[in-house]
Amino acid sequence: MASTILGNVSENLKKHLGKLSKRGPHRVLVGDLSYAGLAGKAYTPAEGDGIPAVAFGHDWMKDISKYHGTLRHLASWGIAVAAPNTETGFVPDHGGLAADLETCLQILAGVKLGAGKAVVAPGKLGVVGHGMGGGAAILTAVDNPKVNCVAALYPAVTTPSAELAARHVDIPGLIIGSGKSQLLDAGNPAKIAHNWKGDVAYREIAKGTQQGFSEDTMFKLLSGIGGPQSKYIEIARGLVTGFLLHQLNQDKKYSAFSAADATGKKVESFTGDKLADRAGFAPDEVLPF
């Protein structure tokens, strides 16, 4: 199923990407989700009425502490985040993580956050995830009226299949893949984007990788996965932030972050036949509908 194109004219991300890649203006508070019966953390702007919010899913065997900078970043731009610290074992239940993301959405929409001065608008909810959590975010979005958009960073293979689930997600999506060949490739982000039922933007970050996005630098160095990727993590954060502010807050100045064909430094977008090629489809395998 071919994806729908959000924009027909190539848009430039340069104007806002640099700013959105850096920390935003809001003071951030960090809380524990255990009061709601779920292991995890909540990151919220200190105050705000009718703010947007997302549930965030972690990658395979990654503790949520390995995303502290990213979650704080989103909250600093006025986006509340709830992140479950569940399914962190060697054999996780992907459906279980998706269910926990759903629980996070209920928490975000149902209680005052921070010191009671941050209130989420129930109509401004989305899901975000990295690797395994990106796949789980897609599973969470299927036939879910609470979810208004999905951002999946280097989404990995899940059971049930996120690639198949994407065919049933009829809300805007941002899928981020790697512009670098990877020996440890845990998924096919381009195929997910190609299968997406709703509007979708597929981006590749020049040297960004699935293994490089989490914030466990010492582990990566000791295991030989690679060195710090702070520059590419910042770019990914900026892309997601702009997309969420446009989709959830209806901030039109960030519309380029939802456009299918948008360009930016170290960022390339793929649509149509080029997206199908990245997804691994031969020309005669691409259906005209």
Number of separate strands:
12
Mind telling me the C-alpha Rg?
17 Å
Q: What is the overall silhouette?
A: globular
**Total individual domains:** 1
Structure write-up:
Residues 23-180 form the PET hydrolase/cutinase-like domain. One of its GO terms (molecular function) is hydrolase activity. InterPro entries: AB_hydrolase_fold (IPR029058), PET_hydrolase/cutinase-like (IPR041127). It holds the Pfam family PETase. This is Dienelactone hydrolase. It is a single chain. The chain has 289 residues and is of the alpha/beta class. The protein has a single domain (4-285), classed as Alpha/Beta hydrolase fold, catalytic domain (Rossmann fold, 3-Layer(aba) Sandwich). The protein is 32% helix and 22% strand. The protein has helices at residues 14-20, 68-76, 94-110, 132-141, 162-165, 189-195, 210-213, 217-223, 230-249, 272-279, and strands spanning 4-5, 11-12, 28-32, 40-45, 48-57, 80-84, 118-130, 150-153, 173-178, 199-205, 262-263, 267-269. Strands 1, 3, 4, 5, 6, 7, 8, 9, 10 and 12 form a 10-stranded mixed beta sheet that branches. Strands 2-11 form a two-stranded parallel sheet. Helix 2 (68-76) links the parallel strand 5 and strand 6. The termini are close together.
Briefly summarize what is shown.
The protein is of the alpha/beta class. It has ten helices and twelve strands.
Brief descriptors of the model:
globular, two-stranded parallel ribbon, alpha/beta, 10-stranded mixed sheet, about 30% helix, disordered N terminus, about 290 residues, Rossmann fold
